[in-house]
Amino acid sequence: MIYRDPRCVQVADNLGVAETTVLFLAQNGVPAQVMNPMTLGGLVGLTWLSPTGVSSYGIEVWVDNPAQVDQAKELLQAQADLKSSKVEHAACSGNVTALCDECGKASMFPGSQRGSVQICPQCGAYMDVVDAQGDSEPETDERIQE
Description:
Shape: elongated
Low-confidence stretches: 132-146
Mean pLDDT: 77
Number of helices: 2
Structural class: alpha+beta
Strand content: 15-25%
Number of strands: 7
Number of domains: 2
Largest sheet: 3 strands, antiparallel
């Protein structure tokens, strides 16, 4: 089993990801640093077969203040959730057909507009573009009034 210091908040598989994580944490008020970047995670497990040149231990990112470990982990989790949400949204980015409440006609919209309020190309009224779950509510409660 690999020992990790309690200040370790991420183990990256390449130096670029580790350095980007340090910058992200610093921008959010959590000073951190890449540990042992010159050894690329340590020499144990590093072979010519390693495609990334990084050992099996990975490259660790440590926060400077142990009291900020939880905050850093929450920030990294929120960032991962956001990325996952964007990937999920991109998967739903095909076309969507929506029915206008005013004229009753169907119109085609890009999937990126799913969950928004658009103008009906048939009658010019405002209409909700259904989201991936078939729910007709827009993503925000702010509806445009005529």
